[in-house]
Specification:
The protein is an alpha/beta fold and 337 residues long. It has 12 helices and 14 strands. Strands 6-5-4-3-2-1-14 form a 7-stranded mixed β-sheet. The structure holds zinc ion (2 copies). One zinc ion binds next to helix 2.
Length: 337
C-alpha cells in the first residue's frame, strides 16, 4: 500500500509525504521545519525515518524548511544541480553590490583620482560580474525570493544537536543531484523527474512508482507541453495545480507585473487550463485527482472543483474519478493506494 499525505499546498508553502511499507519520502519543504514535523505527526507520519527530501524547484514556498529539516532529521536532499545551486545562492548572504551601487562606487573612485588622469568610460562588459549574479523570479508575490527569516532560522537552529550546527547556511548533510528525464530509486520507490515550464532554475514534476501504483505530481507550471501530458498518463493519483481563476486574478490585488507572470507560460495553471486538459487530453485512469496550489488570493476552492467536475462530467465513464482539494492551512486526509 502507498500512502500519500499532502501536508500543505499553495503559494505559502508546499509539502507532501509519500510512504510505502519500506520507504518514506517528502516532496518539497515549503513550510517551516517545525510546521512540517507538526503536521507529519498529526497525520501519523514519523519524521525520524525519512529516506529523502525531493525538491521540485527553489521558490520559497517549496524550500522554506529545507535546510532545517535536512539537518535536524538528517535527511538526504534530492534536487537538480541547477536547483541546488539556485537555492544555495538564495540562502547565502549576498556580498555583491547592485549595479547601481557599484556604478556609484566607481564614479566616486574616478572623481577622487580624476585630477591625475582621465578614466575611460565604463563599458557594458564591466557589469558582467553583477549580471552573472542570478536573481530568483517569483511566480506569485509570496514566492518572491525573500532571504530566509533569520529569526526563524535561529530559533530552529536550537533544534540541531551541536555537532550538526554549521555557520554555512547552505550546508546540507547529504545532497544527491538528479536530472530531469533520468529515473532513480529511493528504497522501493522509483522516481522519474520531468521538466515543467516555470520561472525557476530547473523546475521539475515527479512520477513516483511503487507497489504497482503511479503517482504524478505537477504543480507550478505555466502550461502543459507534450512532455508533461505524456508523464501524466496512466496515473493512479494525479496531483495537478489549479492555481487561479483567470478573472479573479485579473481583477485581484496583485500588481500588474505579477499578474502577467502568473498568466505567462512559465507561471501557473488556471482552473480553465486544468479543465481543458481534463476534458480533452486526460486518460481518465486516476482514482484520485488532487487539485493543488490553489491561490488564496485569486481562486476559490469551489471554483477549482467546479471547473474540474464540469470537465470530467462531460466525459462519460469518468465519474469514478475522485476530485480532492489540497489546502494551505490543513493537511489533506491521507490517500491510500
Ligand atoms: Zn509554488
Ligand atoms: Zn514556483
Amino acid at each position: 500500500m502507498v500512502r500519500v499525505t499532502i501536508l500543505a499546498s499553495g503559494s505559502k508553502g508546499n509539502c507532501a509525504v509519500v510512504t510505502t511499507s519500506r520507504t518514506r519520502i517528502v516532496l518539497d519543504a515549503g513550510l517551516s521545519c517545525r510546521e512540517i514535523v507538526k503536521r507529519m505527526r498529526l497525520c501519523g507520519e514519523e519524521p525520524e525515518n525519512l529516506d529523502a527530501l525531493l525538491i521540485t524547484h527553489e521558490h520559497q514556498d517549496h524550500v522554506q524548511g529545507l535546510s532545517v529539516l535536512a539537518r535536524r532529521w538528517n535527511v538526504p536532499v534530492y534536487a537538480t544541480e541547477a536547483t541546488h545551486a539556485a537555492w544555495k545562492r538564495w540562502v547565502t548572504p549576498r556580498n555583491t553590490m547592485s549595479f547601481k551601487a557599484w556604478l556609484e562606487a566607481r564614479r566616486q573612485q574616478a572623481d577622487m583620482s580624476s585630477s591625475s588622469e582621465a578614466k575611460p568610460e565604463l563599458q557594458a562588459s564591466d557589469i558582467c560580474d553583477t549580471a552573472a549574479v542570478p536573481s530568483l523570479t517569483a511566480s506569485e508575490e509570496q514566492e518572491a525570493a525573500q532571504p530566509l527569516n533569520p529569526a526563524l532560522l535561529e530559533a530552529e537552529r536550537e533544534l540541531f544537536p551541536p555537532d550538526v550546527r554549521s555557520d554555512d547556511p547552505a550546508y546540507l548533510p547529504c545532497v544527491e543531484h538528479f536530472r530531469a528525464g533520468i529515473s532513480f530509486d529511493i528504497g522501493d520507490i522509483t522516481v522519474m523527474p520531468f521538466t515543467i515550464p516555470h520561472d525557476a532554475a530547473d523546475p521539475v514534476g515527479f512520477v513516483l512508482q511503487a507497489e504497482g501504483m503511479r503517482i504524478v505530481v505537477a504543480t507550478d507550471l505555466g502550461y502543459m507541453p507534450p512532455n508533461v501530458r505524456m508523464h501524466l498518463r496512466g496515473a493512479d493519483l494525479l496531483m495537478i495545480e489549479s492555481n487561479h481563476d483567470v478573472e479573479m486574478l485579473r481583477d485581484g490585488p496583485y500588481p500588474w507585473a505579477v499578474k502577467q507572470r502568473v498568466l505567462s507560460r512559465v507561471g501557473h495553471l488556471s482552473n480553465d487550463a486544468v479543465g481543458d486538459y481534463l476534458a480533452e487530453d486526460y486518460d481518465g485512469g486516476a482514482r484520485f485527482v488532487v487539485l493543488a496550489h490553489i491561490s488564496e488570493s485569486n481562486n476559490l476552492p469551489e471554483l477549482a472543483r467546479l471547473s474540474a467536475e464540469r470537465a470530467l462530467n462531460g466525459r462519460m465513464g469518468l465519474l469514478g474519478n475522485k476530485i480532492l482539494l489540497a489546502s494551505q492551512s490543513t493537511p489533506l486526509e491521507s490517500i491510500l493506494l
